[in-house]
Design brief:
Elements (H helix, E strand, L loop, with lengths): L2 E5 L2 E3 L5 E8 L8 E6 L6 E6 L6 E3 L7 E6 L4 E6 L8 E9 L2 E4 L3 E5 L2
Parallel strand pairs: 2-11
Antiparallel strand pairs: 1-3, 3-8, 4-5, 4-9, 5-6, 7-8, 9-10, 9-11
């Protein structure tokens, strides 16, 4: 069974930082590109960042470029998202995703709330 367990969310003040983790199991993590997606209340899901299978190529949405850093540890089957200089508009449910054999997979997500 494929599992993508995100953690590390919480309440943080504007300007603060959080580090999200996504623990993967049930597939060969190191063979797949991974993506972070977020969904704010009442809004459509928004692509945040992607990383290739070996971690050598990363991409970011303009809204987070320069503030967020995606990384992965293939030895520990874990994906990360370091979020710095957080803004209220970053408030959302964050989840990690991948595509296995053409089928999208996602976890339950972790909630990030940026508020003073």
């Amino acid at each position: 069974e494929v599992q993508l367990q995100a953690s590390g969310g919480g309440l943080v003040q504007p300007g603060g930082s959080l580090r999200l983790s996504c623990a993967a199991s049930g597939f060969t993590f190191g063979s797949y590109d991974m993506t972070w997606v977020r969904q704010a209340p009442g809004k459509a899901p928004e692509w945040v960042s992607s990383i290739n299978s070996v971690g050598g190529s990363t991409h970011y949405a303009d809204s987070v470029k320069g503030r967020f850093i995606i990384s992965r540890d293939n030895a520990k089957n874990t994906l990360f998202l370091q979020m710095n200089s957080l803004k209220p508009e970053d408030t959302a449910l964050y989840y990690c995703t991948t595509i296995l054999d053409g089928s999208p997979q996602r976890g339950q997500g972790t909630l990030v709330t940026v508020s003073s």
